Amino acid sequence: MNSTNPKPQSAGSPKPPDNSNDTFYAARKKLQVRSVSGMFANWRWALVWITQLLFYGLPWLVWNDRQAVLFHLVERKFYVFGWVFWPQDVFYLAIILIISAYALFFFTAIAGRLWCGYACPQTVYTEIFMWIEEKIEGDRNARMKLDKAPMSGQKLFRRGSKYAVWALFALWTGFTFVAYFSPLRELLQSAVTFSFGPWELFWILFYGGFTYLFAGLLREQVCKYMCPYARFQGVMFDPDTLVITYDEERGEPRGTRKKGIDPRAEGKGDCVDCGICVQVCPTGIDIRDGLQYECIGCAACIDACDQVMDKMQYPRGLIRYSTENALKKHWGMREILLHVLRPRTLIYGGILAAFCVALAWGLATRSTLRVDIIRDRAALATELADGTIENVYRLQVMNMTEGPRSFEVRVGGLDGAVIRGTGRVEVAPATTQAVTVQVAVPPSSGKPGANKLHFDVQATDDASVAVREETTFLMPH
Questions:
Q1: pTM assigned to the model
Q2: Exposed (0-12), middle (13-18) or buried (19+): which is 94, by Cβ within 10 Å?
Q3: Where are its TM segments located (predicted)?
Q4: Which of 161, 275, 308, 334 fits a 20 to 30 Å CA distance from 354?
């Protein structure tokens, strides 16, 4: 038998590494991000203002004495300004999701992670939370000093104030989110008496809690480890995609120097190795190491580097938007833009445009009347005293406008077919009215078994609002 005992080691042999404390996850190093100003920072804050004015403002807009935008789950109706959408309109939601996907593909193929850097909720709310943090705790140096300071009354007050403001903002965000699905007026009344329904309270706390967690505490961890887009973005890039790049040929070798000295005279590149590009990065990467999946494309490093280049009286653009081919072949902006139109972007753009046109056409031609017909299966066919054959139908007439409407119901397809009783249906605004209709035909009008029949439903105040629905009429054998 072979022995399972390990061989003894000689005194001079190296000890095997101790892997008992290895971990699959890197220890998190807290980032204190330095604020930066510049063109791209202005664009980011412009998107912050635009997206948040829309998000927080839309529930307060009134349209036809109701919320302009309300996805009323209880009533199963979606109100979007003058449109009322029903569960049957899920087709439009599918088109919107397809448009969103292809828009992401299209803009990513052109200029990388524009969505992540400027409009993603994680980026937007992180910017807001960092702004609150800076106003309460101070700039980057002050915050780092506060981190190292022992606990004191002042530190407790500053930290407590920051967390309290974060919590209030997060709760207001959760409240606004729920206001898109439950009428704002009812929510405000519930807030005064704190009588929220269980699901309303759950979603306020759930959405607000995750806003606080993601934007206040996790921050870059969400982008680096939780967001799937960071993992598959690479397959959407190609050598002609605009991404944030460091011009290594121009910047290396990096090193410090005095202002006004020609770096080439000292055998150095334009990079002064100040590290500010790393300090302003919200994910804490060094763009000089090349493109990394953690880069969200916010361009904060471009603004920071341009300011340093201005101080050193060097040309801007050491860190800039460029492409892999442009760096290799020393293209200018004209050549870069000429390569924007390539097969990938043309295909994405064509599909995106087609779906946008389809959505616009569908909304423009959308009927404000919908009719569903169900034939009564309890009594398939009845012979009346006068010899005529009767079938009974149940009509669901859906008025998709926000005004009451009257509809005229007619029947056709079989000779002599008539509606017994009234042929008029009154439907309240944005509701569905069920009505039972008896249709009688002479026995000679059709063959035994199923015969084609159709209902014409037309608005009495607008002849263009009309629907024809086909069904069957059963004749006895």
A1: 0.85
A2: exposed
A3: 43-63, 90-111, 163-181, 201-218, 346-364
A4: 334
Looking at the fold, whether 123 and 181 belong to one and the same domain comes out as: yes
Say yes or no to pLDDT of 90 above 80: yes
Q: What is the DSSP string of 66-77?
A: EESEEEETTTTE
The pLDDT of residue 26 is 61
Biggest CA-to-CA distance, the chain: 116
In one-letter notation, the amino acid at residue 306 is: D
- Specify whether 329 is located in the same domain as 282: yes
Other CB atoms within 10 Å distance of the CB of residue 231: 10
Asked if residue 8 is part of any domain, the answer here is no
CA distance to 37, 170, 219, 285, per residue, from 142 (Å): 18, 25, 20, 22
- Residues paired with residue 84 on neighbouring β-strands, in sequence order: 79
pLDDT score of 21 = 53
Q: Do 271 and 347 reside in the same domain of the chain?
A: yes
The single residue listed with the structure tokens 């190093």 is: 29
**What is the CATH number for 470?**
2.60.40.10
Closest CA to 474 of 434, 414, 402, 423: 414
Backbone angles phi, psi at 332, to 5 degrees: -95, 180
Asked if 366 and 372 touch (Cβ cutoff 8 Å), the reply is no
**Rg for the chain, CA atoms, rounded:** 33
Between 302 and 366, the more confident residue is 302
- Three-state secondary-structure class, residue 27: coil
How far apart CA 335 and CA 322 sit, in angstroms, is: 11
Give the integer Cα–Cα distance in Å for 166 and 175.
Answer: 14
From 343, 366, 389, the end of a domain falls on 366
**Per-residue CA distances from 322 to 141, 232, 267, 303, 471 (Å):** 32, 21, 25, 15, 62
Q: How many domains does the chain have?
A: 2
- The share of the chain scoring above pLDDT 70, in percent, equals 94
